[in-house]
Amino acid sequence: PPTFPRAKEGSAPAVPSMSAPLLEKTPPPSRPPPSKAYLNKQKQAVNSTASPSPGAAASLSPSAATSWAIINGERSFRGAVGACCFLSWARTPIALLVTLLVWWLPVAIAAPLVVLLPPLTFLLLTFGTMPKQWGDPYYGFVLWVQKLRLTTQFVQFNGARVEGRVAYDLRALKPKRELRKTPLPLGWGLVVADYREEEMDAAVILGNWFGETLSTTLIPVARVLDIVRLAAYHLPWGWRSAPRQTSFSAGENPVKFVMDEVGAVYPKIHQQWADKTGDEALAHFCRSGLAAHRLELAPEDCPYLDADGKPAKFVVRTNEMATLDVKEGCDRYGGDAYFGADWRPVAIVRKETPEQCEWWSTLVDKVYRPGDGYKWEYAKFAFRSTVFTLVTFVDHLFGLHMQTSELVMLATREQLSTDHPIRRFLIPFTFGAITINDWARTALCAYGGTTHRAFSFTDGGFARAWALAPALAFTRSNARWTEENPSPRGQESKGRAQPFRGVFRLKKAPTNEIADGETAASVAEKVFARTVGDSASERRSDDGDGDSDWIDAFLAHHGSAYPSGGVDTPFYRACERYHGIVARWVDAYCARYYPEGVAADDEAVAFLEQIMLTTSQSTVASYGLQLGAAFAASRGRPLRMRRLLVCFLTRFIELVTLGHEQVGAVQVYAQDASFASFSWKKGDLCGTKEAAMQGATLMCLTSSITPTLMPGDDSTFEQHDWSFLYPPPPGQQSAADAADLKALNRTFQEELAAMARDLDAEMAAAPAKAFPDNMGSCTVNPRYMECAVSI
After folding, report:
1. Which residues pair with 431 in a beta bridge?
2. Strand-pair category, 314-316 with 296-297
3. N or C: which end of the chain has fewer CB within 10 A?
């Protein structure tokens, strides 16, 4: 054992130095061992502690603790001994590194937590306040973000209707240039402009009671919410190839189920359906409801007979959807509904897979008739749900957003200067199209997006649906011309004017043959020659008003967005009236800026050419060739080009206003999963709870504030008038000229108001009438139309 120097009498015992080693193999010769009396005294002190535990030993005095270790023959690192050893070990580089890690590890952990605390809190609050998801939290997050965005818009607009002078700001217009674009994932090579190209960011929030300075600070808030929503569309939460399917229990109300969750975010419903599932309701659904624009005449030799033994008169076809694969547990889409001349349902024909056959087997027709009990009710529900899905996916998403609205917006921004009269004229009708369509690209057009989750399509079925979209799109005016009926069939309905009937006959129907090395211009010339004739004088004639027989027939055939096709219904009568109002307004406007025709305006010609060619690439081949032929026949002929311009602008405005209301205002259908559903279990007469929430959430995305077509009851024409957008016509700079343009706009608004009043009166009187006139149509009422597309 080590030895200690003896302490002098009257002084404290000597304490070993902390820097000297305490344990030595051989005691120094100058240090004699302790006396026997000292050791006996230490033994007595140690024995009195009864071998203390390490904790108790630590409480002893330094001398007692050291003596106890010495007596038991142990080498202890306690007290000063341990401290010395630790300091010796800490001199090594590894020990220094470990020490730093021990000290800085809490800091390294705490710092990211402090940075991530706000977003983590946001996510926890979001998840805790999201609506019920029923198997897919994705929709709850989308709905939650939409609530925030609507709140921001409510503040921006002070809770009021959006009027033209508030929404449209000429200072926000961006110069003509090629826009940044992103290809549509599955959509026929179509491209969508990046949302950062939007030019009306600030216009929508200026002019309210916040004032310009404070209101402008809300722009980043709205943009952050938009970015968050874009990110939310790609979240994989709850995504399954075989989704969870929870049926409604008996007596459970699907409308109450979804409205309890979505609440005030759900858009306002203008249509009233006392009966949704009966046979008369099916007739209203096809005559004045969601399927009204797809109603057509049945073939004369139709094999399905009515109660009097006569062939069915009308039909709505959706069986093209039956070939698309659906997820496990879901039933196939499809169904053709036939009606008699009295509008009573005759039959629904569904294409179904034969029993005990392979998945690739040919589908067979199965006929369901009134009186078949449950099977008839199921066929009606499946048909309504198929129409709901088909119209939403093809007519609305593909036809209006990705094709019509997007292509026209691109040509407007890339070919027309900010002071061009056509660009100024189209500002209300392209307003917000970039933002809306870019949202639709990410939310609705990609795998795992809102529609892919909500619809029954498998991955392969979803891809095939996009591939078939141009063929599934129902545009009656795009039907192939025939030698027997070159003019629109709508002109043959009773009581209609027939200006082009019998004017001429096609010499040969257009074909889709394209030889190697041919250009778009040569193809157009070939189609024009085959359609009208090979005579140069006949093809190049440009008489007094600039119209030729061929252009007359083409524009009559394709002029209206919704020609009746021989079907006389309230929907088509209202469409015809609306078409006349818009056509007169557009023609008067173009006549002021192009009194001699579109001659020296290269921008207007390039604008039309870009639209024609880009549309040709994303539609059926026959119609694309006809567009090219029409443009080639009008090039170099000013009056004919102006007529083509008027026809195109009229059709475009009809589609983004009336057309978007018809295919997009589906609140009453999406609200009730027993009325129609994007997805349903085979055999159920109602969509699942998951499908109900998905449809309602998708509908909530359409509730964003958008400028309206005509003033509301609480606003005036001066508040809504957008004639301030129009530049002065060439050579006309006086105040009287500006007043004429304003009067032109006022006449348009007055005609719309008169039409709205008449339709309101028809709706009010309809319930007292006999079937089938006991229900009017709301979708063609200008009172409810918006100027541009929204989701």
Report:
1. none
2. antiparallel
3. N
Nearest one of 749, 747, 790, 784 to 763, comparing CA atoms: 784
* Helix/strand/coil for 374: helix
DSSP 8-state code for residue 300: T
Specify which residues 368 forms β-bridges with: 348
**Residues composing the chain:** 791
The pLDDT, as a whole number, for residue 621 is: 59
Strand 345-352, strand 364-368: pairing: antiparallel
Q: Kindly write down the DSSP assignment for every residue of 123-151, as one continuous string.
A: HHHHHHHSPP-TT-HHHHHHHHHHHHHHH
pTM score > 0.85 for this model? no
The burial of 376, by beta-carbon neighbours within 10 Å (0-12 exposed, 13-18 middle, 19 or more buried), is given as middle
User: What are the residues whose beta carbons fall under 8 Å from the beta carbon of 201, sequence distance 6 or more?
Assistant: 172, 219, 223
Residue 594 contacts residue 642 (beta carbons within 8 Å): yes
* CA–CA gap between residue 393 and residue 396 (Å, rounded): 6
Which residue do the tokens 């401290």 mark?
83
pLDDT in tens, 721-730: 889 999 988 7
Q: Which amino acid is at 696?
A: A
Question: Tokens in use for 178?
Answer: 């090629």
DSSP per-residue codes, 474-532: --GGGSPP-SS--S-GGGGSTT---SSTTS---SS-------TT--HHHHHHHHHHHHH
Report d(CA 586, CA 592) in Å as an integer: 10
What's the pLDDT tens digit per position in 163-204?
666 678 888 899 999 999 999 888 767 899 988 888 876 444
In SS3 terms, 643-707 reads as HHHHHHHHHHHHHHHHHHHHHHCCHHHHCCCCCCCCCCECCCCCCCHHHHHHHHHHHHHHHCCCC
Our CA angle for 609, 610, 612, nearest 5°, is 65
Alpha carbon distance 322, 773 (integer Å): 32
What are 459's strand-pairing partners? none
Give dist(CA 460, CA 462) in Å, integer. 5
Is the preceding peptide bond at 772 cis, omega within 30 degrees of 0? yes
Cα–Cα–Cα angle for 541, 542, 547, nearest 5°? 110
Task: Note the pLDDT tens digit of each residue in 547-582.
Answer: 466 677 777 777 788 888 788 999 999 999 999 999
**Cα 339 from chain centroid?**
34
